[in-house]
């Protein structure tokens, strides 16, 4: 069973959200395993409710996994999980990174260097003019433009990127196959064709107010920084800026007339320390260490700098060749020092650190970059 397919299938089970998935993984259950009696006991002992265990026993079978996989294929939706090499590294740095991402379009854009551009749904002519100017400059500098495909500034940012043959990523607060707002059907189709539409919600999920703050953390999480162009004092754009700050990213804001309701939020951000932006260079000078293509080199370097604790080092010592090692052999080697569940938990941590890869047939291999 493929881990990618398994994680997507688990994610499709009603009631399985971020926290439930985290508890399942903490219990040592990887979604490429069968629900054996020993696995079920481990789940029960790690805080998984009897109701959820019962639901898993009812749903978790090859037919369900096949159904989910075929449904995604029919909708031309690509799946990237936290454990995939394609998963955006910047997104891994945030609190509660999505376990599963559903993408229509070019999934590779999620790993390129992005700038989030967000703002009010009711922009002034000034706000729209500034959006076109700044997005054009950032596209010409090589940035992917990330936004939420909402009416107003978001939509203008996406359109401007497309008009200038740039790349853009739309993060939705609904399923990746759901067009919202509906008047953005043509924009949605164009982004799917030349950019990417992404969501952490399963396909078919309709928009809901509670989904948008979670969506905003992904917009900022994919990006080196967030640019806010016109925002009211209380708005989703400020939530995105807050997430950007929490994630250690840059926050930029465009000043506007003190008499404009749409500029109160951006003026507030500037008072709080966001960088005041009047041209693209104001943004670019904060990224003096970046040039197009450099991010991939930095990511490759970062993957080589993992630190391992004593238990992880012990498990890694069992990989004394480049050949895949079956899970039963790893359990046998570590049987005197660790219980089986602990070995699987450590293997999960090593997967998260990209130190080992899991292959079909419950076999593991050590990544070559990790060898000294």
UniProtKB/TrEMBL annotation:
Biological processes per GO annotation: DNA-mediated transformation
Matches recorded under Pfam families: DNA_processg_A (PF02481)
Signal peptide: none
Smf/DprA SLOG domain ranges (all copies): 79-287
NCBIfam families: dprA
Record family assignment: Belongs to the DprA/Smf family.
Protein name: DNA-protecting protein DprA
Gene name for this UniProt entry: dprA
């Amino acid at each position: 069973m493929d881990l990618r397919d398994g994680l997507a299938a688990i994610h499709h089970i009603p009631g399985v959200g971020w926290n439930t998935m985290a508890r399942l993984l903490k219990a040592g259950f990887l979604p490429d395993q069968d629900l054996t009696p020993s696995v079920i006991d481990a789940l029960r002992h790690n805080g998984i409710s009897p109701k959820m265990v019962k639901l898993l026993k009812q749903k978790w079978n090859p037919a369900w996994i096949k159904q989910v996989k075929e449904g995604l294929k029919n909708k031309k939706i690509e799946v990237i999980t936290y454990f995939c090499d394609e998963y955006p590294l910047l997104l891994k740095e945030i609190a509660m990174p999505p376990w599963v991402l559903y993408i229509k379009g070019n999934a590779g854009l999620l790993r390129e260097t992005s700038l989030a551009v967000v703002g009010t749904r009711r922009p002034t002519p000034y706000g729209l003019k500034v959006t076109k100017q700044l997005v054009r400059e950032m596209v010409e500098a090589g940035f992917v433009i990330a936004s939420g495909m909402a009416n107003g500034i978001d939509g203008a940012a996406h359109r401007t990127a497309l008009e200038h043959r740039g790349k853009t990523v739309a993060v939705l607060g609904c399923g990746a196959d759901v067009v919202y707002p509906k008047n953005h059907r043509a924009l949605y189709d164009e982004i799917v064709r030349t950019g990417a539409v992404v969501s952490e919600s399963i396909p078919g999920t309709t928009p809901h107010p509670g989904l948008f703050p979670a969506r905003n953390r992904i917009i900022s999480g994919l990006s080196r920084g967030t640019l806010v162009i016109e925002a009211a004092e209380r708005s989703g754009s400020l939530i995105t800026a807050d997430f950007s700050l929490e994630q250690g990213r840059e926050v930029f804001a465009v000043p506007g007339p003190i008499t404009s309701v749409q500029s109160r939020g951006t003026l507030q951000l500037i008072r709080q320390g966001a960088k005041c932006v009047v041209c693209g260079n104001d943004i670019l000078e904060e990224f003096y260490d970046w040039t197009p293509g450099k991010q991939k080199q930095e990511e490759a370097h970062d993957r080589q700098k993992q630190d391992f604790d004593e238990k992880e080092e012990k498990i890694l010592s069992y990989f004394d060749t480049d050949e895949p090692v079956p899970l039963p052999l790893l359990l046998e080697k570590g049987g005197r020092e660790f219980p089986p569940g602990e070995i699987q938990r450590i293997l999960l941590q090593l997967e998260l650190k990209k130190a080992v890869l899991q292959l079909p047939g419950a076999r593991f291999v050590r990544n070559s970059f990790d060898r000294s």
